[in-house]
Amino acid sequence: MTTAVILLVTEIGASIGGSVAIWTRKMPSKLAQSLPDISEKDLTTLFSSIPDMTKYERGTHARTGVILG
Hints:
Helices cover 78% and strands 0% of the residues. By secondary structure, it is mainly alpha-helical. It is elongated, with a radius of gyration of 17 Å. The chain starts with a helix and ends with a helix. The chain crosses the membrane at residues 6-24. Keywords: Membrane, Transmembrane, Transmembrane helix.
């Protein structure tokens, strides 16, 4: 039983690590494609802070670009 729990936790950790790797590799370029009119500084801010992403009102070009990015 203990071995099963350890293996489960290991698999969960690997899944989280894989998701973070995908986020850091693909998300910046996807944001740039979805939001071509936003400055590089603002794109960096959006990428690094999910709460900053939610500051844009729903339905605005920036919020839609973040969702589609």
